[in-house]
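User: I'll paste a sequence; please echo it back and then give the predicted structure.

Assistant: Echoing your sequence first, then the prediction.
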Amino acid sequence: MLQARSDPRGGRLVGAAFHPHNHETMNFSSRLFDRIRIGPSEAEEVVEADARLCDHPGCTKAGEFRAPMGRGKEGKFFQFCLEHVKAYNATYNYFAGMNDEALAAYAKQEEIGHRPTWKLGVNASAARMAQRGREAGGPEMEDAFNLFRGRAGREQERAEPRVGVLAKKALETLDLDENADRVAIKARYKELVKRFHPDANGGDRSREGRLQEILKAYQTLKSNGLA
């Protein structure tokens, strides 16, 4: 059974190996539940407090390289191993999903260092003017920054994806779709851990690969604020 004990070398939690002759059952409601790690050998490895695994689902290598999470999450980063940071950087595109008008507006803001300027949105007559133009069927005013809070701006916001590529893959690993909320994610995570953990399979460790994928996917969702 997986048990937690203190390690005198650094106060870390150590997972003891499963003993087939120990008939005690695992307490899945313990606070240590989210910290389960399955090592490659019979004895569980110590998880270093300052170590972080690669954020790519299913990867157990050290996440030594940072990569930006993307537009809307500036200042936040994933941690990848060398292989996966190369793959991520090869497909990363900050401007993905932006139309020509939004790109042009971004370029204009780049020229002034993205400093805030006076906002037309505070002028109610400007909003009414834009609305009258739409209702009259005339040329619609471009509003890349939603200064007029028009219908097109709201529809564009709704069309943006809720989760990124890695989070979507992590949800798929847990057999969930993009609409799953925090409660559903945690419930499915616990369900799958109970199903594939050696303690629930008479000590059979043949499903550890699948369990590692589940644990990694859940950590990815937590790092994205979804769990």
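Helices lie at 82-91, 100-111, 124-135, 151-159, 165-173, 182-196, 208-223. Strands lie at 4-6, 13-15, 65-68, 77-80.
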